[in-house]
Structures are given as structure tokens and as C-alpha cells.
Design brief:
312 residues, alpha+beta, Calcium-transporting ATPase, cytoplasmic transduction domain A, Calcium-transporting ATPase, cytoplasmic domain N, 6-stranded antiparallel β-sheet, 3-stranded antiparallel β-sheet, 8 helices, 18% strand, elongated
Amino acid sequence: MVFLFLVGELLEGVAPGKARSSIQALTTLVPKTAFVEEDGQTREVPAESLEVGRMILVRPGDRIPADGVISEGESAIDESPVSGESVPVRKSVGDNVFAGTINGDSVLRIKVTAAASDNTIARVVKLVEEAQEARRRLSASLTASRGGTRRGVVVVAALVAVVPPFFFGGDWNGWIYKGLALLLIGCPCALVISVPAAIAASLSAGAKRGLLMKGGAVLEGLGKITAVALDKTGTLTLGKPQVTDVISFGRPEADVLRLAAALETGSSHPLALAILAKAAADKVKVPPASKAQALGGKGVKGTVEGAEVFLA
């Protein structure tokens, strides 16, 4: 039983270690350098040296090096590394952006609002580490208390097994059996070995599937859940929209698809790619569009075959 208890304590250390190693991988999402603008000049500096209030330049396709507010520009931001949302979010002047997210299609000038040690990803890592440290201290105190409990149980079990047959003429086999039963029931080793083993296995399985869980409390909470509401593209879906139906009003469905594909030609937005894929699958001949323009949060407009077309 002592051996099993020691194995249980070992697994208690392995379980949070797996969670820590998984969460620490998030820190690699933040770029090591940033482009700072000063007096009309741009220079590259370490991202960890950025101070609150600094103005940084983020090029299309680059990861944003710090939490901040957009001061100039408008772009689609891929926030999936932080939020899990696979569809890029359109952001413009005054909107908050987070370190580690990816700038999509335009140059942005961003005013830093948090130092590297206090950005969104750093705070997530810190919270998980604090939770694990608190759990470790609690586990240490419980281990100490369990040590006293084990000694008390051993003493009581020995008395139950020895005193009745020695002093009162009881049956040795029966009372030794009762003493062993009391020892097994009173000693927490049987439970201690199962709980950390289950936690270690669950955290490991979750990490392999991209799930970061802070510990046993989260796993225990899952057993009490009776309903789940999900609002994350990519959780239950692939995060890749597809056109399933084209419903037209006043004109043929082929025309609707043809005009929509014309406006979306050249766009990398997930919905645009879905429309273009549907047009290609249906072998629709897509006409050229002129003056095509994306309207943030509204849609796309342009001129196709001499007529103005708007796609919401």
C-alpha cells in the first residue's frame, strides 16, 4: 500500500506537468521582434522591450507582437491562436488586438497597451501556473495529513487484529481478517492511486486533441454537465464554410452564384473561398468585376457586366 501511495504521488506530479508543458507552448506564438515607428523611421526591436504607448507597425501576414489598439488601418485578424475562432475577425481603428494573433491583408499601426510580461498569452500562462502551484501546496498539506491518518489506521487495525484473540480468546483468523479489512478501508491509498492516474490519463488524452485542462476539478465538473452550448467555429465543424444551397429571388440560381463569384474573385476570406469553390464545382463561367471593394462588417460591392452588385 505504501508503494501504491508513492506511485500515486508520482502521478500527481506528472499530471500538472503535462498541462504546464502544453500551456507553455503558447508563448512561442508571440514573435520575438517588432517594428517600432519613431520620427517617421521604422526599426526592428525585441518584442519583450516594447513599452506601453509605443507605436508598432505590423505587416500583412505577420503575427502581432503585443496587445494593443489599432491606431491606423483595417484588416482581418486571425485570432484562432488565442480564441480558437477559425474565421478571421475584421478590425479597424479603435479595436483591440492581441499578441500572437495574425494580421491578414493590410498594414496596421498599433499602439501598445500591455508589456510583454502582461499580454494576453502571458496572463493565460501565469493563471495556469498559479492554479497548479496552489494545487501543489494543497496536495502537500493533504499528503502530510494523510501520513498521520495512515499511521493511526495501522495502529487501530493492529489493535483490532491482536487484542480480541489475545485477551478475550477470539478467533485469530477472523480478527486478523477484520483488521486487514479495516486497514484497507481506512487507508486512502486505494483511492489515491486511482485519482491521479485518471487525471494524468485524461490530461494527456486532452492535450493530444488540443484541449488544455487545468486539473482534476475541471474533469470532475464534466460529470455534472447536463447541457452544452458551443459558439466556436472549428469546435464541431471543420471551420471551412461550404455552399450547400443557392436560393434565388427573381433571377436564376446560376446567375446568383455567377455574380457572387465575380465579386469574390481574388479574395482569401473563408466565405469567398466557399463561393468560388461552389462556382468551380458547378463549372460556372465567372465574369470579371471592376471596382470591387470590401466593406468591413457589411459585405462586398462592385460592378459586374455594367451593373452594380452588392453581396452581404
